[in-house]
Write a structure and sequence with these properties.
The chain has 265 residues and is an alpha+beta fold. It has helices at residues 35-38, 40-49, 102-109, 113-119, 142-145, 155-167, 175-180, 182-186, 191-197, 229-257, and strands at residues 17-18, 52-55, 58-60, 73-76, 83-90, 129-134, 204-205, 210-211, 263-264. A hairpin with a 2-residue loop joins strand 2 (52-55) and strand 3 (58-60). The protein is globular, with a radius of gyration of 18 Å.
Length: 265
């Protein structure tokens, strides 16, 4: 059952909302820092952005516990006291650590210096950040399930699965994990509300009522990772353009609804 509201924690007002901040540089730890795990600023920005009305009469107010080991963002249903845990995840993948498919690995090695500079190490900014529900009792979270071959960690294909969930339409490679976290998607009621809440309007074609895919879509038949240098550069160019549009939408929302917080674009 979806929470009808979430308890609200202490106000976490920020000195500024910086859409250009690179979370990779924030609070790095060890040899392999993870911004989704380690960045205090990213956690604060998630807290700031997602504390709002999900749909009429339903408030989504995740709280960042003071002690990080106690959870990332937790939403508590006020009547039952049920706690819903959420974690951060980047919505894009560079594929630089993937060893297969071989076509993808080959495509990355064929990039020239300018393409490598542009596509292989961009900053991790708020436009590329998302939260997903997590729960230890389920072996596959959204983060993990999205890596399977039919999705290949692509956000456009993830959103097609979410659209199909709300519409109960067609085969859905993520149907099981979405069902595991049905409460999360029920909070928003409709796909349109989900898109609006998380600022994904530029990933959806309003006229067609469909997803604007980063690469041509074949109904989940092929491995979803780019299979050539051309596909890789097309994919990355479309992703970076989308990230920029999304961070601008976030900046617009903060300026409209949290006018006391300066926005850096």
């Amino acid at each position: 059952m979806a929470p009808t509201a979430c308890t609200t924690g202490p106000s976490r007002r920020q000195s500024a909302f910086d859409t250009t901040f690179n979370y990779k540089t924030d609070n790095p730890k060890g040899a392999r820092p993870d911004a989704d795990r380690d960045s205090l600023q990213l956690r604060a920005d998630h807290d700031l952005l997602w504390t709002k009305e999900a749909r009429s009469g339903v408030q989504f107010s995740p709280v960042a516990p003071e002690v990080r080991s106690h959870g990332y963002l937790i939403c508590t249903e006020p009547v039952s006291g049920q706690k819903y845990w959420h974690g951060s995840d980047a919505i894009t993948n560079l594929y630089t650590t993937w060893l297969r498919p071989k076509a993808l690995v080959k495509a990355i090695t064929e990039l020239d210096d300018a393409q490598r500079s542009l596509y292989l190490d961009p900053p991790y900014t708020i436009g590329s950040a998302m939260i997903w529900p997590v729960r230890k009792s389920h072996p596959y979270t959204m983060n993990r399930a999205r890596v399977r071959r039919q999705i290949a960690d692509r956000m456009d294909l993830t959103f097609e699965c979410i659209r199909r969930h709300y519409a109960d339409d067609g085969k859905n490679p993520l149907s099981q994990v979405i069902s595991n976290y049905k409460y999360f998607f029920d909070i928003f009621g409709t796909f349109e509300k989900f898109v609006e809440f998380f600022h994904f309007q530029d990933l959806v074609s309003v006229k067609k009522g469909s997803i604007d895919f980063f690469l041509p879509f074949d109904d989940f038949k092929r491995h979803a990772a780019p299979a050539s240098k051309y596909e890789y550069t097309e994919y990355r160019a479309n992703v970076l353009q989308f990230i920029d549009k999304r961070r601008q939408r976030m900046a617009d929302w903060v300026e409209e609804h949290l006018s006391d917080i300066p926005v850096i674009r």
